[in-house]
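Reopening this one. Same input as before:
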Amino acid sequence: MSSLPRLSVIIPTLNAAGDLPALLHVLDPADEVIVVDGGSTDGGPALAHSLGVRVLESPPGRGVQMANGAAAATAEWLLFLHADTVPAPGWREAVDGHVQAADGAGKAAFFRFRLDDPSRQARRLERLVAARVRLFSLPYGDQGLLIHRNLYREVGGYRPLPLMEDVDLVWRLGRPRLTGLDVDAVTSARRWRKDGWLGRSARNLLCLTLFRLGTPAPLIARLYGR
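Same output, byte for byte:
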């Protein structure tokens, strides 16, 4: 158990009952864990309750769910995690190192992207994500985000967007206020296996391009049935 200030871990969910146990298992029991549910029908909220986790109900959409979770959180440090992303062993030591750093409160931190798939396609995608982060300082939400409450408020927090909420916040933070943690966050690859490795990646890139060109996030969401 960490002796440093606890975290408020905020997890947006929508029919994520199959993912929650693995994630909740690795979290520090001393931390505040908030599951913000967007209308699940798979028993996920009840499961979280049974595991002693605080559950909030919210309109669906990760942006509004994470904003609501942050508003309800009580700790000075916020850690946003997707339900299908599990930090690897050593994650808490990496987080504590960032918290203790002299400039830690002035920077948001993110994990290294990994997939739970042994295929060459997964390794290739991991390398592409690493290049994107290195060149453009653009981590996505499946890499988690650790941020001090004051910095979160300063940049305006998550906006209630139906998608691209992670990119929107990272762009407002900017490269000088972002840093990587030397530990993996392992994300489920089922979306890529379902949609196709090339198809899913192309879709994500197109969404990013449209958003960068100023296309409203609700329009992008409608185009892709979100």
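So the earlier flakiness isn't reproducible anymore. For the record, The chain has a mean pLDDT of 94.
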